[in-house]
Write a structure and sequence with these properties.
Elements (H helix, E strand, L loop, with lengths): L1 E6 L2 E6 L2 E5 L15 E3 L1 E3 L13 E3 L8 E8 L10 E8 L4 E4 L9 H6 L5 E5 L8 H11 L3 E5 L14 H5 L5 E3 L4 E3 L7 E4 L6
Parallel strand pairs: 3-5, 4-6, 9-10, 10-11, 11-14, 12-14
Antiparallel strand pairs: 1-2, 1-13, 2-3, 7-8, 8-9
């Protein structure tokens, strides 16, 4: 399974020739990012805000057979049961070799049952910037509890990109050990990939 971080919370996930995009953003919705121009066989969005629901930016191909089983968990975009920002959907993808979860704009605490659904992950794509989502310390505590093999932070502020009100990557990585910074935007995830916090560079900068 190949994971490519396009930027913000948008990932391209590829397996067996099938391309799936998670949470594409609309042009101009997130400071510092170039528009998305991609082809895929499927698009999944955690919620309908502009920075996560740019489905029109993805050209859908025809005829691909998905290797993925997809599970969803209904959560909230805030800590007030959606009163501030509405619902949020977690997507869990399994291609028969690796199992990953994309938390979208998770802004609430998970229940014990929801956490059980997220155990045994090969990779966890988790927001760490705070303000709109869980923050760095909450993300670290959740990752420690779920114990995925690989943690990939997303939805944070970097040099020249991201919302001013959300926190920087360093607020999260300062709490973590075994941080691996990749030179590019892509991670090849296999059953042999060692435990790590994987920091990718956004492709669309």
């Amino acid at each position: 399974m190949t994971l490519t971080w396009l930027g913000h919370s948008c990932f391209l996930v590829e397996s067996q020739g099938f391309r799936l995009i998670l949470d594409p953003y609309e042009p101009g919705s997130v400071p510092g990012y170039q528009p998305i121009s991609a082809q895929a066989d499927q698009v999944l969005c955690s919620h309908e805000h502009r920075d996560h629901h740019g489905v029109d930016q993805v050209t859908l191909r025809q005829g691909g057979v998905s290797p993925f089983t997809v599970e969803t968990i209904s959560t909230w975009h805030d800590d007030q049961q959606g009163a501030l920002r509405g619902p949020n959907t977690i997507h869990i993808l399994d291609d028969g070799q690796c199992r990953i979860a994309h938390l979208g704009d998770l802004g609430c605490q998970l229940t014990a049952t929801q956490k059980d659904q997220l155990k045994g992950l090969d990779a966890l794509l988790i927001p760490v910037g705070g303000y709109y989502t869980i923050d760095a310390s909450q993300a670290k505590a959740l990752a420690d509890e779920l114990k995925p093999r690989v943690v990939i932070p997303m939805h944070y502020r970097g040099e020249g990109f991201g919302y001013d009100v959300i926190g920087p990557l360093e607020a999260f990585t300062a709490l973590c050990g075994n941080v691996v910074s990749y030179p590019g935007s892509q991670l090849e995830l296999t059953v042999q990939t060692p435990e790590q916090v994987a920091v990718l560079k956004p492709l669309n900068r």
